[in-house]
Amino acid sequence: MNRLVIATRASELALWQTHHIKDKIEREFPYIKVELNEITSRGDKILDRPLALIGGKGHFTKELEDAMLAGEADMAVHSLKDVPTYIPEGLELVAITKRQDQSDVFLSHKFSSLESLPMGAVVGTTSLRRRMQLLRVRPDLVIKDLRGNVNTRLRKLREGQYDAIILAYIGLARLNLLEDIPFTQKLPLDIMIPPMGQASLGIEIVSSNRRVREIAQSLNDKESYLLTQLEREFISEIGAGCSAPVAVNATIDGDNLKIESMIGYPDGTNILHKSLIAKREESNSLGKRLASLMVENGALDILRNAEKLAFKEVRPERI
Q1: CATH number corresponding to 104-186
Q2: Strand order across the beta sheet in which 256-263 lies
Q3: Which CATH superfamily is domain 236-312 in?
Q4: Overall pTM surpassing 0.85 (yes/no)
Q5: What are residue 198's phi and psi, to 5 degrees?
Q6: Catalytic residues, which ones?
Q7: Cβ atoms of 291 and 234 closer than 8 Å
């Protein structure tokens, strides 16, 4: 094998991530020429509605998966947080890159921190997870929908459409976009629990291609794979869709693994927050165990009601 084709979204951040993987492969396997198949996903095209109203994060991965199944690519590079827990038959998520900074970051041209925002300040985010956690600590804020690529979101902030916005830190850092923003504040993970898989890349391949599997597995970080699999296991088990605010994060401290989750209503009420800790050798199915604990404490009712409440103000019949 001397040629490998990677399917990637055509956004600036996705291309940065895919070129990062391309460079790693070409250094490790210098006889392989890596080519990119750039694809504009449906999630990148529809920018006037929240993702939850167009079918969720799968719209960032479906076209890439279709390209692999059609023989137009051997591998796809995804932001792992965008990858649904269901993987189509014939494909496989075989490697997770080393997890980097998982923080969400507060950005503003007017105010120095989340705490310094005045009552009624307008904060931009489309994420139900962020909305829930922001309103939990600052119920006085006005949360306004925010779509578009990273540069579009930053332009809207600069134009004064928002007093502040919340984005993932790692994407801004990768594109060197933080230095031009007057005020930035990384939000602690105990205030803003990240989503499943944040700050790792997922490498998906055609299952039957053994050589591509070998190449992809050279990119795998074992610790990140373990932790993100627990998070994906939790999401799969609890059946949480994109129309419900869900945060989940697994961490490791020495020989101890911890997984915690928070679900609730989009307005920051009816919060359920639980965690479990286990030794590494006893961590098998820890995600499923946390899901069971959450269900025992009423998670399914919360999720059902949260879905009804999500974006109800933007559900007119024209959608």
Answers
A1: 3.40.190.10
A2: 246-253, 256-263, 272-279
A3: Porphobilinogen deaminase, C-terminal domain (3.30.160.40)
A4: yes
A5: -60, 135
A6: 82
A7: yes
